[in-house]
Structures are given as structure tokens and as C-alpha cells.
Input
Amino acid sequence: MLFTDSFVVIPSLPLLIVLSMLLKEVVNIPLMALVISITSWPWPARQVRAIVISLREREFISTAILTGIPGWQVIFKEIMPHVLGWHLINATNTVLYAIGAEIGLSVLGLSILSMDTLGTMIYWSTIGYPSLFRGIWWWVLPPIVLTIAIFVSLYLISTAIAERIEPRLRWRT
Output
């Protein structure tokens, strides 16, 4: 946990900016994904550890161990069903983070400006060719609206997965 905690305290946006500036000449889509994933792993690692430690202390795990079930069956049949739902929700949130990070880096001019992404469209329409000052708002509005739609839809997917997995979160009718 010392290794994970040392990465948790490092702010991700400045680290992303520094890594993107250092790798500006050689950056491509897989390298950009690697740079973004470098800053996104510590918090989920802590969360998974907390979930597993909490599950380890529950009665049904102790009962399973005392009945003689092998360790691998306890992991795969008792612990994994609880952690799997969290992984589905976290995967959706990680996609949200990655899209947001790429858009943020592109708007700052630190991403691949020759590739067509939502971030580069916002960059070129606001900074490269200032469309709002020229009165051509339709250059900047579609990528921003599409970004908002993607964020809202992924948030709704994450919420729906959480409600499906945890019945206590379902709305009362």
C-alpha cells in the first residue's frame, strides 16, 4: 500500500500535463492511453483493497473457510461476485475519466492535434481558429454538446449498473 499511496498523493492533471509535454513529438493513441492510465490506477486499487478487506471480515467468508472450501473457491465463488459489480461500474467511470482527460489535454494543445477527436475539434474551433470571435458558433457547439451527451450517457449507464447490482439503490415506486 505504500507504493499505491505514493501515487495517490500525486495530482493527476499536472502529471498528465508534464508527461504529455515530454512525449509531445512521439505521442500516438496507444501512448496517450498509457499516459492516461498511469494517472488513473491508484484510487481504484485502494477501493478494491478496501472492498476485499471488508469482505474478508464478513461471516459468510469465515463460514466458507471453516467448512473446508479451498481458498481459490472462496475467492472465485464468494468474493468475486461482490467485486465484479464494482468493476463494471469502475470500468464505466474509467472510460469517463479517459475521455475527459483526453479532451482536457487536447484543449490545452497537449494531445495529438492531427487526429480527429472531440478534444481537438474543441481546440481548433476555440483556440486554433477562434470561431466564437468570428461568429461561427456551430463550429464549437456540436463537439461540446456531444461531449456532454457522452458524459451524461456514461453516467446514466454507471448509475443503472449500480442500481441493478445493489437493490437498495433502486428507486421506490
In short: The mean pLDDT is 87.
